[in-house]
Amino acid sequence: MDVDAGHGAALGRALPTQAPAAKDLPLGKRLRSFLSFPGNDEDPVAKLTKTHRGIHPSADAGVLRRSYAIAENMHRGQMRKSGDPYITHPLAVAQICAELGMDTTTLVAALLHDTVEDTSYTLEALHSDFGPEVTHLVDGVTKFDKAFYGKAAEAETIRKMIVAAGKDVRVLVIKLADRLHNMRTLDARSPASRARIATATLDVLVPLCDRLGIQALKRDLDDVVLYHLEPDSYARIDDHVQNRPGWQDYLAQVSSKARSALRRSRVTAEVTARPRHYYSIWKDTVAGGHAVPFDLPRIAVIVDGPATDCYAALGAIHGQWRPVAGRFKDFIASPKNNLYRSLHTTVTGPDGRLVEVLIRTEQMHRYSEFGVATTYRYPKTAETTDPSGADQLSWLKRVLDWQQDTDAAQFLASLRCDLAEGQITVFAHGQAFELPSASTPVDLAYELSPDTGDQCLAATINGRLAPLSSPLRDGDVVEIFAETDEHVAVEPNAPRGPRKEWLGFVKSSQAQMQINRYFDEKNEPGMSIADKVKLGRATIGLTLRKHDRGLASEVPLRRLAEELGYPDLETMLVAVCERNLEPDMVVEQLIALVDHPD
């Protein structure tokens, strides 16, 4: 899914001259025939293997070389719009994954992630060569063909990716690495394409990265999006960052004084400068209406001890410098929706300058940087110290629940809403709930349960009765009153169920979907492409039974799809489902293909 791909004359599908003779050889011999790099004496996988083994010393470098060899061979002849050989893209994606600390399986899938989409390499061949895990990851990031699916292709591709990530979150990690490299090489595209791709990245992929907690990747995505969408602002911030006289000396002074304060309080901790990335500076500059880039000095205090030591460190810092009122946040007691945990405070530092301070344990720091990738980067400690587990991906489970009941366009719109960067935490029935900013009591009611949402009558916010359309604020305590509550009196002729006007103010995907479902329950939801593929496959299976035949594998089906001019088997199966292809005709041709292969 390289958005910059520029294919060679034969779309890169034709193998080098030795390939037709080599394709029937065992995998080992085929790979030896692939492992040649004409005109290049350098080892193209050396940096990748060095990075990977630097984090995972016992990793199998051989499988990386084998997967690179196949990817290089299959993509040979394809070029990117930048003019670089296409293989440079999957190699760069694998390198990004390696720097995150992902496992060998992820790196293999990253190297091969575009082969099924852009070359003649099939999922069956991939499964045979590298097994089911790699196959699932590659299939999860393979796009649907726009020529056959039109405008629905993008939304259906994202839905497919999310469903695949529900089984293995590494699908999303590869997709994010793929998009990061594409964004880094976006200058080869037209201005309109750059704006479109950057906006799509900001709308969906950056929030996805944030939900996965991979801040090390999100910072790079943020900055490259800013570079393409706000080039003038990026240039001003870059000039500001490159020309800050005395900045490093000041941070060194602050860090030294912080270490002294921590030692006096007998808190063992590492103190480092923590400069902010460009997008973060830009966001605060715009939010505050500042004429010049607004960028406070910042340090991080990494405590060597339990979470309680973070509060001891906070006391030491506040004892050294006066804290700024209203600038303290406790994300340890109340983690963010991606389970980010840290203490944030702002103090009046040396020379009266404001300084931001982050305080966290080493474990919290790992998860703040690498999120779901932490369990792959630190596999030995993850089993005993991973605080996230299934909770970190609870939002993904919620998305998977409601994606089944929406069409592709509604799914994508709901996903964008669900991933909204602004989030608030409200409290009800002794529990905390994460909601999009400016959510209302109706949004909260649907978070409690679909029935509570449908039957919501009234609400109190912080003990006071409030309209159901009232925007909630972070920290509000809310009570919902529903028709089914025993102590609520409902007039006999009063209208029941949700109101259509609620759609004008609800913010959460859950509320929007449930309200729409209530009013559209007589209409059948649109079938997804995945559903049509299943139905098409089942239709062919039933038609084959009329002839007392069956399929031992999908190889003949894929060969027939190719002969009929479809880009892949799934597209042909959709055509069968939609009756653009008659199943009897497909089965007749299939039987002829199997019985008379010549």
What features would you describe in this structure?
The relative contact order is 0.07. Strands 3, 4, 5, 6, 7 and 8 form a 6-stranded mixed β-sheet that branches. The chain has a 3-stranded antiparallel β-sheet with strand order 12-11-13. A two-stranded antiparallel ribbon has the order 1-2. Helix 5 crosses helix 12. The two termini are 35 Å apart. The chain contains 30 helices and 13 strands. Helix content is 53%, strand content 10%. It has 598 residues and is α+β, with helices and mostly antiparallel strands. It has 4 domains: 225 residues, Hypothetical protein af1432; 144 residues, Beta Polymerase, domain 2 (2-Layer Sandwich), CATH 3.30.460; 126 residues, Roll (Ubiquitin-like (UB roll)); 67 residues, no CATH class. The longest helix has 21 residues.
CA radius of gyration is 28 Å
Stretches where pLDDT is under 50 for at least 5 consecutive residues are 1-41, 383-390, 488-494
End-to-end Cα distance, whole Å, is: 35 Å
Count of alpha/pi helices: 30
Q: Work out the number of β strands.
A: 13
Biggest sheet layout: 6 strands, mixed
CATH class of the largest domain: Mainly Alpha
CATH architecture group name of the largest domain: Orthogonal Bundle
